[in-house]
Amino acid sequence: MKEFIKSYLLELCCSYTIISVAGAVINMIMGTQTNNANVVMMFIFCNIAVFVLSIHKFFEKLSPLAMIIIQYVMALALCTGAILIATLFWGPVTPRGWFEFFRSFTIPYIIGAALYYYRLWDDAKKQQEMLKEIQERKESGSH
Amino acid sequence: MKINLFEDKKITEEYLDIHFTEMRPMIRQLIDTVRSERPVITGRPADEDIDDGEEIILDPEEIYYFDHVERKLYAYTESGVYRLMTTLSSVEEQLSNYGFVRVSKSNLVNIYKIKQLKPDINMKVYLSFDNGERICINRSYKKSFNDYLQKMRRMGK
């Protein structure tokens, strides 16, 4: 448990730093500004993302594709819940706002899943080449 | 590999010199053989009664993989399936220099028998053997499998 909390906090710190710095850079380039509510929501979303990704061990028996879909649904539900709670304090979200939330959540997730699949395929290809090399060397050594 | 054999009636103790550029699996196996430490894997045909079946010495090179099911250990070879009276971890320890690597909690595979390694549509990576059988590489063992291949490649150079 101690190890889990340690790794969770480390990942949270890293991801929040990257996102807040990237946000600040985008704001500087676009000439826009953020507010305190956005900063708090960004921190909550980072918490949700790190938590959902850190429980991947519980889906060990499932295929990676099933795991990705389950984690997507979980993260989407938690983020929606967080926004609904936020509306109690900061006013309602417009339909366009919900659509933007869904789009900005889904697109990076699909890109991430595609990158994961590409890495998996690339690793398998490299391992296949290594295997062939090892097998050929053994065959030539035994002759 | 060049082999020189010398017969000398005068020597009191027989000896063997091995000259190698780098420690490779084949050299390690030679050393094990000379020291009589070559692993001996024995098993009984899986379809026979465990008390009646005759114990057979299995050549590690003939084994495709080991499977641990319901606290029983089986070795899959071209000639059939054999039940072993040992544990998967002890077999893993014995055969780590002979191309055997763990790919899941219950499977130990012979890398020299793997025909293909391919990810499936559901993103699971499968190993397929010469005999057409397939085994999935568990995500937790992915890194250790890759490390083992790299180690074997380095040893073989």
Topology, number of strands of chain A:
0
**How much of the sequence of chain B is in beta strands?**
25-35%
Order of secondary-structure elements of chain B: HEEEEEHEEEEEH
Number of helices of chain A: 4
Strand content of chain A: under 5%
Secondary structure: helix percent of chain B? 10-25%
**Are there runs of chain B of 5+ residues with pLDDT below 50, and where?**
none
Radius of gyration of chain A: 21 Å
Q: What is the fold named in CATH at topology level of chain B?
A: OB fold (Dihydrolipoamide Acetyltransferase, E2P)
Please identify the oligomeric state: heterodimer
Largest sheet of chain A: none
Mean pLDDT reading of chain A: 89
The largest sheet of chain B is:
7 strands, antiparallel
Shape of chain B: globular
Terminal CA distance of chain A: 53 Å
Descriptors for this entry?
heterodimer, A: 143 residues, mainly alpha, 4 helices, 0% strand, elongated, B: 157 residues, alpha+beta, OB fold (Dihydrolipoamide Acetyltransferase, E2P), seven-stranded antiparallel sheet, 3 helices, 10 strands
If you had to describe this structure to a student in words, what would you say it looks like?
The complex is a heterodimer of chains A (143) and B (157). Chain A has helices at 2-30, 36-54, 64-90, 95-142. Chain A has 143 residues and is an all-alpha fold. In chain A, α1 crosses α2 (36-54) and α2 (36-54) runs antiparallel to α3 (64-90). Chain A is elongated. The mean pLDDT of chain A is 89. By secondary structure, chain B is α+β, with helices and mostly antiparallel strands. Chain B has a single domain, classed as LytTr DNA-binding domain (OB fold (Dihydrolipoamide Acetyltransferase, E2P)). Helix content of chain B is 21%, strand content 31%. Chain B has three helices and ten strands. Chain B has helices at 25-34, 88-95, 142-156, and strands spanning 41-45, 56-58, 63-69, 72-77, 81-84, 100-104, 107-110, 114-119, 125-129, 134-137. In chain B, strands 2-1-5-4-3-7-6 form a seven-stranded antiparallel β-sheet. In chain B, strands 8-9-10 form a three-stranded antiparallel β-sheet, with no helix packed on it. The model of chain B has no long low-confidence stretch (mean pLDDT 86). The A-B interface holds A 60, 63-66, 68, 116-117, 120-121, 123-124, 127-128, 130-131, 133-135, 137-138, 141-142 and B 1, 24-26, 99, 111-112, 114, 116-125, 138-140, 142, 145-146, 149-150, 152-153, 156.
